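Following up on my earlier message about FO1. Here are the inputs again, as you asked, copied directly from the submission form:
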Amino acid sequence: MKVALLAGGVGGARLAHGLSRILGSDLTVIVNTGDDLEHWGLAISPDVDTVMYTLAGLGDAARGWGLAGETFGALEQMRRYGEADWFNLGDRDLATHLVRTKALRDGHKLSEITDRMRKALGVRSRILPMCDEPVRTIIDTPEGSLPFQEWLVRRRAAPRVNAVRFEGSRVPAPGVLEAIAEAAHLIIAPSNPYVSIDPIPVSTAGAIAVSPIVKGEAVKGPLARMIVELRGEAPSPAVIAKHYGKLRGMVVERGDEAGIDVPVLATSIVMKDEEDRARLAREVLDFARGLS
Ligand code: FO1
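Thanks, got it. Here's what our run produced:
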């Protein structure tokens, strides 16, 4: 049974990991690249890397991004040179960005490079960046427009969000539309809808979404505040369901079912460890099968 998963960073990677353990090569993860940036002259794709490292079992579980056991000697040296030190690129993580930057410079596509890298790391599931051409998520704030990572990491998501927009031509990378067409189920990971899923240029109609909101709070990141600032509503899975529209089903935390007008699976959706990831993935797949 083939499955396509739309995913952003940390929450997306955790569900992807659970699904990957069950589905192996039958899973395609379509990953947001709106968070990408150029830093120290290198092409960085944080969400692609978070998914790739997590599926390879190499990710830092506590942080959710970067590699486990990472060191930051290069960052320290860059600081001594007076270079930007607000984005924490680890020493081994740098290898990924060096390989990607060189391959892009040699004319290869981001989707090809990602495929080569995930295979080198022993990842059986396919990881597809949403687009090959650069896309940049821009956060409009009262202090001006900020590229996503500058808003999230450099400014610690402090400036109020007036609007989210995307720069660059959002053409799906080769394989993205085919993977969705071939999939028995399209699943939306518990990622931020505004900055992780909306940038992905595919229809979410007929998808099954896993809520990134639990008991009024975001599982991770600034989503709860963004819902208030962008929509003027209290954060809830119902707001997420309404945002996507035309879902086939929604997976929420027990007790969070109110106001959702599509079939709901209410279970425990916070993924604290690998067992949680595998159990939630199994439940989501069973729910999806039951809806077909
Ligand atoms: N997140 C942070 O909060 N601070 C960082 O310094 C940081 C560095 C970083 C480096 C590589 C990478 O792949 C991810 C990194 N992230 C960092 C995570 C990233 O900013 C976000 O979690 C995602 O873009 C949101 O999905």
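One observation from looking it over: The mean pLDDT is 97. Hope that helps, and feel free to reply on this thread.
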